[in-house]
Prior knowledge:
The chain is an all-beta fold. It has no helices and 11 strands. The strands form 2 sheets. Strands 2, 4, 5, 6, 9, 10 and 11 form a 7-stranded mixed β-sheet that branches. A 4-stranded antiparallel β-sheet has the order 1-3-8-7, with no helix packed on it.
Amino acid sequence: QVQLVESGGGLVQAGGSLRLSCAADARSLERYVMGWFRQAPGKEREFVAAISRNGGGSTSYAESVKGRFTISIDNARNTAYLQMNSLKPEDTAVYYCAAVQGYYDSRYYVRQSSYHYWGQGTQVTVSS
Length: 128
C-alpha cells in the first residue's frame, strides 16, 4: 500500500504559477509511474501528466497543458511534482496524484484505471 499526499494548491491569478507536490511513503519511486489528474466542477476527472522512470524517464501530457506544465520526480525525497506555469482559469480543478508500479513508457498510463494508488486531492483555483 502506498499513501500519497498532495500539497501546493491554492488561488492564483491567470498567468501565474504553482507547483504541486505529491509525497509518497513508498521505499522508492524508481519503480513507479506517477501521474496527475484533475477534476473540475461538473466534469469528469481527466489526465494531466505522467512520468515513467522505468520507461526511460518518459513523460506524457494532455494537449491542454503541453508547454505549460512539467512533471518531475525527486527520488531522494520520494516526491513527485507538477510545475504549472501560465495558468488559465480553465485549469481550475482539484488535482490528484496517482501511482502504480510500472515499467512501460508513460504514454500507456493516461487512464485512471491504470493507477492503483491515489491522493486526496488539492484545490487549484485560477482567477481571471
